[in-house]
Amino acid sequence: MTSRRLRALLRYFPPYRRLYDIGTDHALLPIAAWEAGLIDDCLGVDNKPGPLEQARQNLTQYPKAPITPVLADGLEALDASRDLIVFAGVGGQTIHEVIAKGPLHDVKRMVFQPTMHAHRVRALTDYINWHIVDETVVEEADRHYPIIVMEPGKTRLTLHEKRFGPVLLKNREPAFLAMLTREKAHLEALIEKLPKHVDATEFTEELAAIKEVLDNDPR
Q1: Residue 44 burial (CB < 10 Å; 0-12/13-18/19+)?
Q2: For the chain, first and last CA: distance in Å?
Q3: Residue by residue, what is the 3-state secondary structure of the chain?
Q4: Among the CATH numbers 1.20.120.140, 3.40.50.150, 3.40.640.10, 3.40.50.2300, which is that of 4-167?
Q5: What pTM was computed for the model?
Q6: What local confidence, expressed as pLDDT, does residue 189 receive?
Q7: Which residues does the chain have with pLDDT short of 70?
């Protein structure tokens, strides 16, 4: 059975069917997408030989799957035939560095699932002509995972929107608020334990911003 996080990513595939999966690891994502009838073909890219060999082994169980494992770094193997990029399971800073290099050719949609520093993914809108069309948060195994979906188009986000997500701020879905509540508790405990000589400004400012979002319920 596919995980909740993987199923959430698959929701954003249609109508695009030519997948470029960065950091494909064991190729679980493209295999699930093919089994669900969501893709016509896929380049599963990874820059580590070990995981890519495991992907090849996994794909022997699906001889008809149009999934090609490729040893490459980031966008190196991207060509103009791809219309969908997925980059999941790595930090937001890594996603930012890879995608900002480009070129993105004829890609129509990008779906990101950063493990941390989601604000760095949203900050891509400062450097490339793409905008955020959807966001969600998935809770799985006692962790929260943001998903950010982008398509071509210019936008300008405020610092507040980069930090929390323009769509998440608007929709205030329960998993998003639960994620912020957990971050709030973590920061409060961290600030409490900091030695007095340590500057806690960064943490207190982040805590105040989270409290503002949680307290600002428009309903």
Answers
A1: buried
A2: 37
A3: CCCHHHHHHHCCCCCCCEEEEECCCCCHHHHHHHHCCCCCEEEEEECCHHHHHHHHHHHCCCCCCCEEEEECCCCCCCCCCCCEEEEEEECHHHHHHHHHHCCCCCCCEEEEEECCCHHHHHHHHHCCCEEEEEEEEEEECCEEEEEEEEEECCCCCCHHHHHHCHHHHHHCCHHHHHHHHHHHHHHHHHHHHCCCCCCCHHHHHHHHHHHHHHHCCCC
A4: 3.40.50.150
A5: 0.94
A6: 97
A7: 1-2, 218-219
Count of other CB atoms within 10 angstroms of residue 185: 11
Q: What distance lies between CA 206 and its chain's CA centroid?
A: 21
d(CA 148, CA 137): 9
Q: Is the dihedral of CA 36, 38, 44, 46 positive or negative?
A: negative
Alpha-carbon distance 17 to 106, whole Å? Answer: 13
What Rg, from alpha-carbon coordinates, does the chain have?
19
Rounded Cα distance between 104 and 108, Å, is 9
What are the domain boundaries of the chain? Answer: 4-167, 176-215
* Per-residue pLDDT, 216: 83
